[in-house]
C-alpha cells in the first residue's frame, strides 16, 4: 500500500483513496490505459488529416449531407475536432459563416459528439465490432435527427431568436 495512505487511520478511507479500486489508483490507471491512447490516436489522425489537406476535401464531399440539415460542409471541421475536445470545437465554430450554422453546430457538439475521454470509455465498454457499429449508427442517427430539428427550429439567417451572424436584429 502506498505510504501516503498510511496516515489515514481508517481502513475504509485508505481503500477509498489508494486501494485496488481507490480514487487515485483508478484515475491513474484509466488515464494511462484508456484515455491517453485514444487522445494520442485522435490527435495523430487529426494532424495527418490537416497536413495531407484532406480536411477541406472532406468538407467539400460532405457538403451535400450538411446542406440537408441547413449547414455547409465546413461544419465537419468543428465536429471532427469535437471528438478530441468539445470546448475547443465550440470555439472553432467561429469559422462557420452564419449565426445559424454556429448554433446548429454547437447543438450537435453538445448532443451527439463524444469527447475523447467519453470515446475512450465507450470503446472500452464495447470492444466487440458489432457493438461498435451499433454505437456509431446510433450516434449518426442522433446527429442527423438533432440537426434536422435544429434546422427547422432555426429557419433562415437569424432564426426565430433575435440575432444573426453580424449581431444585428432579424428585422434589419
Automatic annotation (TrEMBL):
Organism listed in the record: Archaeoglobus fulgidus
Domain of life per record: Archaea
Domain Nucleoside transporter/FeoB GTPase Gate: from-to ranges: 34-126
Pfam families in alphabetical order: Gate
Ranges annotated as spanning the membrane: 21-49, 76-96, 103-123, 129-150
GO cellular component terms listed in the entry, alphabetical order: plasma membrane
Name of the protein: Iron (II) transporter (FeoB-1)
Keyword Transmembrane helix carried by entry: yes
Keywords, ordered alphabetically: Membrane, Transmembrane, Transmembrane helix
Xref: InterPro entries: FeoB_GTPase, Gate_dom
GO-annotated molecular function: ferrous iron transmembrane transporter activity
Amino acid at each position: 500500500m502506498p505510504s501516503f495512505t498510511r496516515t489515514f487511520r481508517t481502513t475504509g478511507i485508505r481503500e477509498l483513496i489508494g486501494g485496488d479500486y481507490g480514487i487515485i489508483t483508478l484515475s491513474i490507471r484509466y488515464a494511462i490505459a484508456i484515455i491517453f491512447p485514444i487522445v494520442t490516436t485522435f490527435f495523430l489522425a487529426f494532424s495527418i488529416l490537416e497536413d495531407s489537406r484532406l480536411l477541406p476535401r472532406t468538407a467539400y464531399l460532405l457538403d451535400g449531407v450538411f446542406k440537408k440539415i441547413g449547414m455547409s460542409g465546413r461544419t465537419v471541421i468543428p465536429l471532427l475536432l469535437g471528438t478530441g475536445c468539445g470546448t475547443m470545437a465550440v470555439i472553432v465554430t467561429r469559422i462557420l459563416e452564419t449565426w445559424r450554422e454556429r448554433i446548429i453546430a454547437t447543438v450537435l457538439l453538445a448532443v451527439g459528439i463524444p469527447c475523447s475521454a467519453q470515446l475512450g470509455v465507450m470503446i472500452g465498454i464495447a470492444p466487440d465490432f458489432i457493438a461498435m457499429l451499433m454505437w456509431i449508427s446510433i450516434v449518426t442517427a442522433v446527429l442527423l435527427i438533432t440537426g434536422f430539428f435544429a434546422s427547422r427550429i432555426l429557419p433562415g439567417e437569424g432564426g426565430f431568436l433575435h440575432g444573426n451572424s453580424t449581431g444585428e436584429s432579424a428585422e434589419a
